[in-house]
Amino acid sequence: MSAVFDSLMPLSGGSLAYTSAGTGPEVLLLIHGLGGSRQTWRHLIPALARTHTVIALDLPGHGDSSPPAGDYSLGAHACAVRDLLLALGHQRATLIGHSLGGGVALQTAYQFPERTDRLVLVSSGGLGTEVAPILRAATLPGAETVVAGLSRIPIALTRNLLTVLPPLASAPDAAALAVALRGLAGHQQRRAFVRTAHAVIDWRGQTVSASRQLGLLRDVPVLAAWGVKDTTIPPHHHQHFAERVPHAVMVEIPDAGHFPHETAPEQLLAALEAFLASTTPFDYSAAEWTDLLTTRQTQSVSSGREALATHQNVDRAVGVLMGLRNCSAEVALRELVLASQETRTGTAGISAALVDLAAGNRDVEGERGAEYAAALGRWVRLIDARAEFDSAARDDPAVLAGDVMIRYGGVDDHTRC
């Protein structure tokens, strides 16, 4: 078994405490959650150190690390992770983060992709808005005083209280939460807990999301693990993450809550070791990363323009139909939707075709099938009939041919203007 060392690294922004073990060729950097410390990884470090160099740090202000000058944001924590890695002589690492640490890992990969081999997210924050009420309460006035009182309660009593108060913690998490709460007895640790909470949470829930950067993980090996009984961060956040990052390895641990690395370490370790053995480190390329960044931006701008054009075309088409049929906007929009369904054409496309027809352009794409041609043909007849009506009998609606009064879907109160 590899020896485990506890050390303190003096850096320009303050000292960071860390635990290190192993001498393997690849580095694993473990990042704890909000209000926690590197001790949360104690069950995994010895096993991981058999094949890897393992580093578990205390984030600034947490555990034995000195507090920052005042910045407790994810970006500041990501810089601390990078600084420690470089100070220890390592260029890259697989980032393994729990809860808030998952958010820090995601932020580190975003800010420093050249330092990232893989990402492992355990019950990760930053993937959705919902979070436990007890963490939302940590952002309210007086929270630090309340936490001070709770942290003085003996661990055994806190564990028992949490066990019988399921809204606060699921049964598997009671012991881990009791220990974490006791770790906030020091003024520095309480301040870090509250200020870091303020950086990522408000009374409504999580305020920082990684959703806009998930596309950048296209080539980064990712594992996401969570406990089915997690009451701190809803498990469905990870299911949504899987939809956005389809190549990610997803691990659901049935009997675990928010702390699977503490309450079900064997199951998490097996998944983690298999993931590390079956994947190769991210091959960072500045050119490819820049392409991802700029392509995404271009797509975002393009999508915004397309969405605006779509809305404008639909609005114009609705206006055209309202004028042609003397009907409400709701009825006109329903006609467009029914036409879209009948012709198997998007609402934007069929709307643009109608706008062109109304403008006198009869040379609209006509090779999309019989249904499309029939739909445009009906609108052409409607436009022509309306023109005749307007010029010949403005005061007599009966002049308007009955067949063009009929809308899509049949003759009833909902399809007649």
Model description:
With 417 residues, this protein is α/β, with parallel strands linked by helices. The protein is built from 16 helices and ten strands. Helix 1 (45-48) links the parallel strand 3 and strand 4 (53-57). Helix 5 (143-151) crosses helix 8 (187-200), helix 6 crosses helix 7 (174-182) and helix 12 packs across helix 13 (329-343).
A few lines on this structure:
It contains 16 helices and 10 strands.
The portion of residues forming beta strands comes to 5-15%
- Rg, rounded, reads 30 Å
Shape: elongated
Would you identify the regions where 5 or more consecutive residues have pLDDT less than 50? 297-305, 399-417
What count of structural domains?
Answer: 2
From the 3D structure, determine the CATH topology of the largest domain: Rossmann fold
Distance between the termini: 81 Å
Considering the protein shown, what is the CATH homologous superfamily of the largest domain?
A: Alpha/Beta hydrolase fold, catalytic domain
CATH architecture of the largest domain: 3-Layer(aba) Sandwich
Helix content: 40-55%
Highest CATH level, the class of the largest domain: Alpha Beta
